[in-house]
Design a protein that fits this description.
Helix content is 43%, strand content 6%. With 445 residues, it is of the alpha+beta class. A hairpin with a 4-residue loop joins strand 2 and strand 3. The protein is elongated.
């Protein structure tokens, strides 16, 4: 016969005998209120027997009448709180990181970490901040928390805002960038607050508080001396020093200028000697001047710059020859010079500004300073045609390489000396093959 699970006992209503066999809290509660519900005992009698307060027995019996056996069961357990990893940042710190980056996108990760350490005593790693910014929550607001420095009218509030941001962990560079103010101003405000504390937030006057060296008596003495127009700042400073007043020359000059402007004191002006005109000609065709002007005010399509080459006669100040060219080179210069020589003869001197075309290789190769016969001017080289009009056929033949082909012969030009000798001896002949003109006088000779 199998063993019984529960041992049989005699039925009883004695609480002292029943209590040791009760294990569950719901069973205990039911055995306490059962005699009261069945009407066998009153709650007062049952409280005296079990030792439970009478009010508890009343309360539990009323719950049983309303909910039945469900009132004996414990309430539903609260949901379990998930355990958080201590290494993970709380949601409010994550939100602050995103908001700080929204307020000032130029923040670097370690700067945001410093601000979090100051505000929350947690300093996340820069890699963590980058991860939160990439996959974190959305910013709570896109508006500025604080106005810009120039938008704040009160100077005290401006400085207070700088100090407040610095206390929150912002550095001077970030404050200057966020408030749109110079970094020097931020450092001055922080330095002033460190020295004067909250008294440094108030506005201060920038008036000069030190004792000035110039007083009314000194100004009167300078006024008396300024009446002499021959006294300058240096002499006034020396005169004041003899009186026991030491002022710099610059200070004396400043007050002299003020007095002379206030009292309309005239300064003597020494007449400047009239400078003589350089390269002034005493007779016609003694000196010619050549110049190149840049003509950029034109409407020609596909051409950036146009040049005007002109030759001026210094005595009459008239233009002898002029031409427009799209290039400034030796060929263009020789063409204009040829036109002037063909019409007016050869000058004694040709003056230029030593431009690049006048110092080119072709010009230097035949410059007069390299001549072996000692001739250093057009008149000396072409003296035989000075004051006379050369024959057009001879000049045209000599300048044919320029007028017709517009380029220099690879063999080079013939010297003026050889050409002039051929022209004198054989003015009517035209066999000058290989003896083109080598160039013209060097500019400024």
């Amino acid at each position: 016969m199998p063993k019984r699970r529960y041992e049989q006992r005699e039925p009883t209503h004695d609480w002292q005998q029943i209590r040791p066999f009760l294990k569950d809290s719901a069973q205990i509660t039911y055995e306490v209120i059962r005699p009261c519900i069945l009407g066998w005992e009153t709650p007062k009698e049952r409280a005296a027997e079990t030792g439970m307060p009478m009010s508890s027995i009343y309360y539990k019996a009323n719950l049983f009448d309303q909910a039945g056996m469900a009132s004996l069961l414990p309430p539903a357990p609260p949901p379990e709180i998930p355990k958080q990893d201590k290494r993970s940042l709380p949601p409010h710190i994550r939100q602050e990181i995103v908001d700080l980056h929204t307020q000032y996108p130029a923040f670097r990760p370690h700067e945001i970490a410093t601000i979090c350490f100051v505000k929350f005593n947690r300093k996340p790693a820069p890699a963590t901040i980058k991860l939160i910014l990439a996959s974190g929550p959305k910013p709570s607001t896109t508006e500025r928390r604080h106005p810009r420095y120039a938008e704040i009218e009160s100077g005290k509030e401006r400085r207070r805002l700088v100090i407040r941001l610095h206390v929150d962990g912002w550095n001077a560079k970030s404050i200057a960038g966020y408030l749109d103010v110079s970094r020097k101003t931020v450092h001055e405000i922080l330095q002033r607050f460190a020295e004067e504390q909250f008294a440094g937030l108030e506005d201060k006057s920038h008036a000069h508080k030190k004792l000035r060296k110039v007083n009314i008596q000194t100004i009167q003495e300078i006024k008396k001396l300024s009446e002499n127009p021959l006294l300058g700042a240096y002499r006034v400073s020396a005169a004041l020093e003899q009186m026991g007043i030491k002022l710099s020359r610059a200070t004396c000059g400043r007050y002299l200028s003020i007095n002379r402007g206030l009292y309309h004191l005239q300064m003597p002006r020494r007449p400047r000697p009239k400078a003589a005109m350089p390269f002034k000609a005493e007779r016609r065709h003694q000196i010619w001047s050549v110049d190149i002007r840049y003509l950029d005010m034109h409407s020609l399509q596909g051409i950036e710059m146009v040049y005007c080459i002109s030759i001026l006669e210094n005595f009459s100040r008239s233009i002898l020859a002029s031409a427009i060219s799209v290039r400034q080179d030796t060929e263009a210069f020789f063409a204009v010079f040829y036109a002037a020589v063909r019409r007016y003869g050869v000058p004694e001197m040709l003056v230029s500004d030593n431009g690049s075309i006048f110092l080119s290789h072709d010009t230097r190769r035949v410059a007069h300073e390299e001549r072996q016969d000692g001739c250093h001017s057009p008149a000396e080289v072409l003296g035989w045609i000075k004051g006379m009009q050369p024959e057009e056929a001879v000049v045209h033949e000599a300048f044919s390489a320029i007028c017709e082909t517009r380029r220099l012969d690879k063999a080079g030009y013939a010297k003026f000396r050889n050409w002039s000798h051929d022209a004198r001896t054989r003015p009517g002949r035209g066999d000058h093959a290989g003896q083109y003109l080598p160039g013209f006088p060097h500019p400024g000779v």
